Amino acid sequence: xxxxxxxxxxxxxxxxxxxxxxxxxxxxxxxxxxxxxxxxxxxxxxxxxxxxxxxxxxxxxxxxxxxxxxxxxxxxxxxxxxxxxxxxxxxxxxxxxxxxxxxxxxxxxxxxxxxxxxxxxxx
Length: 123
Hints:
Layout: H1 2-26, H2 29-35, H3 46-55, H4 62-81, H5 89-121
Helix pairs in contact: 1-3, 1-4, 3-4, 3-5, 4-5
């Protein structure tokens, strides 16, 4: 059970990061560009970090981070080969690295909130 729980956070983050990446890259892109704030879509990468940290044992940050780092090359490959690229390779790489950052930040935020709740219960 412990081994499965360690892998669950990583696999969850891998899948959710890939889904968020593909949805943002191809479905929602026009909506954020039309609003004048295309970078707002990166905030959606917080969600895979929060969910994966919740699933991971002890609310770890490393498992979601590893999952996001493993998903990024797959997302880059899909964005470059399957769909017509609208940005350069370096811009897409920078966008994915920003997504990894926001994913890790989501896991850290979950850990912070969890520690606050835990501290309040034990007082």
